[in-house]
Amino acid sequence: MPRNIGRQSALYEQLFSISASSRDYQLLQDQEMTAHPIADSAEPVLSKAHDDYGTATLPDHVDGHDGAAYDSAAETDAVEAGLHKLEAKNVHWYSYLLTLDFWAVIAIGQVLSLCITGTNTFSSFLANMGTNIPAFQSIFVYVLLTLVYLPLTLYWHGYRKWLSIVWRDGWKYFILSFIDVEGNYFTVLAYRYTNLLSAQLLNFWSIVCVVIISFTLLKVRYKPFQIAGIVICCGGMGILLASDHMTGVNGGPGVDMLKGDLFGLLGASLYGISNVFEEWFVSKRPLYEVLSFLGIFGICINGVQAAIFDRQQFQDATWNADAAGYLVGFTLAMAIFYSLAPLMLRMGSAAFFDISLLTANFWALIIGTGVFGYTVHYLYPVAFVLIIVGLVVYFLTGSILGDSKKPWLGDTQADGVAGIGTAKLKALNEARRQHLASQGQV
Fold first, then answer.
1. Neighbours of 309 (CB within 10 A)
2. At what angle do helices 204-217 and 257-284 cross, to 10 degrees?
3. Which residues form a coiled coil (predicted)?
4. Would you say residue 11 has pLDDT above 70?
5. ∠ CA 236-348-420 to the nearest 5 degrees?
6. Residue by residue, what is the 3-state secondary structure of the chain?
7. Is the predicted pLDDT of residue 330 greater than 70, yes or no?
8. 412-427 pLDDT, tens per residue?
9. Is the pLDDT of residue 217 over 80?
10. CB–CB of 394/225 below 8 Å?
11. 263: which residues sit within 8 A by CB, 6+ positions away?
12. Is residue 395's pLDDT more than 70?
């Protein structure tokens, strides 16, 4: 997900934007199809469908499971009925703005921006005290993700099914993790060689990549308001960068501008690819499964990279209680980011995810005024408001489902998981509510 890097001044050399990956909110697992989903007949019974790995799903009454994909005819009918009910409602251009989902996705986006700011701040503290180990410090994040989400995956899937997933989809998860790790790595390299302004301008390329890949590979068709929202957000970011240039905090001349810009372009491209890839993954598979594999493969990939590139920095680093505290803060902020990002990708999209993170620049300045003595230029609040306006405009599409209905999952979302934040679960809940209402039980 591009982890769009906030304006972190020259001190934020160790910027880490996290991909996606995109991360399960408070370890909330999604609600499986609970009892009594509706079909046309009275009191329909859903069969215990087999998921993609040939094992039966949990009984209907088991809650809290970020459900496997179902293929029963009864469930398909229920989803279709629920989607029809939701989409047939009399909606206006502003209808989605009045839903809880809209305010939730806006709030999650700002929490993610604060997480980026936190990781950059802790990285700056470490760099200032001589502990400059960008690859090594990320290993702890992947370890924490593995410790939290692998037990959940084994609990819900069992060892036999987990091994089947490794055999069948392990290579896909490896690619996702590799893109994630390398996107972070090349972005950090870009900040070492080019200046701050150039590196941040290159982050716009990540948004372009997301839009192009989503359009061509995932059949996403952006509506005029969505395009306008993206443009307005980018305009807000442009004002922010202009204020940096006016105040002379764009980092000055880089060590090697060409090399830095190429690294930045590569990092932004990898971010865009990983964001779209992760959105595709979390729409089809449980969040805890995706995050567990990101953690496992992230440890391996980042460990090898740290052993190759961070050995000298590790030996020269300063190790004391302060450094340990900064590492803990960095790890927790990053883990929260990873846990929330998939939820954002389900409820919104990779494009909305990217433009939401543009506000990280503003939060970085707010924190920097107290921590690093920054001053607030008058254009910063203007830029922040403009980005928020762009986020609102993005959802002026008249759809009550927002971006949660994914075109690559089919009209009835049959290829997707019925998990928290998905259109499929919303449709099932709507179908259940309508059925219960007809029975006089609500």
1. 16
2. 40
3. none
4. no
5. 145
6. CCCCCCCCCHHHCCCCCCCCCCCCHHHCCCCCCCCCCCCCCCCCCCCCCECCCCCECCCCCCCCCCCCCCCCHHHHHHHHHHHHHHHCCCCCCCHHHHCHHHHHHHHHHHHHHHHHHHHHHHHHHHHHCCCCCHHHHHHHHHHHHHHHHHHHHHHHHHHHHHHHHHHHHHHHHHHHHHHHHHHHHHHHHHHHHCCHHHHHHHCHHHHHHHHHHHHHHCCCCCCHHHHHHHHHHHHHHHHHHHHHHHHCCCCCCCCCHHHHHHHHHHHHHHHHHHHHHHHHHHHHCCHHHHHHHHHHHHHHHHHHHHHHHCHHHHHHCCCCHHHHHHHHHHHHHHHHHHHHHHHHHHHCCHHHHHHHHHHHHHHHHHHHHHHCCCCCCCHHHHHHHHHHHHHHHHCCCCCCCCCCCCHHHCCCCCCCCCCCCCHHHHHHHHHHHHHHHHCCCC
7. yes
8. 888 889 889 898 998 8
9. yes
10. yes
11. 186, 187, 189, 190, 193, 194
12. yes
pTM value is 0.79
Q: Is the pLDDT of residue 8 over 50?
A: no
**Assigned token pair, 60:** 């209907």
Structure-block tokens of residue 49: 């469908």
Domain ranges within the chain, ordered by starting residue: 10-30+90-394
Q: Position 113: which residue type?
A: S
Q: What number of residues does the chain have?
A: 442
CA distance 424 to 134: 39
Say if residue 144's pLDDT is above 90. Answer: yes
Distance CA 402, CA 223 (A): 11
Rounded CA Rg of the chain: 22
Degrees to nearest 5, angle at CA 340 with 431 and 406:
45
- β partners of residue 50: 56
Q: Could you give the C-alpha distances from 167 to 20, 160, 201, 202, in angstroms and in order? A: 23, 11, 40, 37
